[in-house]
Amino acid sequence: YPPGNFEVGGQYRIRYSDTNAKNLRAEPGSGGTVLYTLMRGVPVEIIGGSVCMDGMNWWQVRVMASIEAVGWVAEGPRGNYWLEPFVREGVFTGQ
Q1: Predicted pLDDT of residue 92
Q2: What phi and psi values does residue 13 have, to the nearest 5 degrees?
Q3: pTM for the full model?
């Protein structure tokens, strides 16, 4: 599938409707080494991508938290994206 409505430089939050936190991986794809587990609401900035692997679009992100980390996260399936726009201090900063 073509990538969702995401862009390099955009800021987003991790979201999911199931109980499975999302993985930040060293490389794009479900076989990439898991660096961290990202819980719902963790803010990220897209810094690269998208790369299509294992039937998903993957984005390189920088985690915007107390422990800075860079890796790859899948955008999720169409209609149930695992990224949502990040709003900070009432200012819309995503798509």
Answers
A1: 46
A2: -120, 150
A3: 0.85
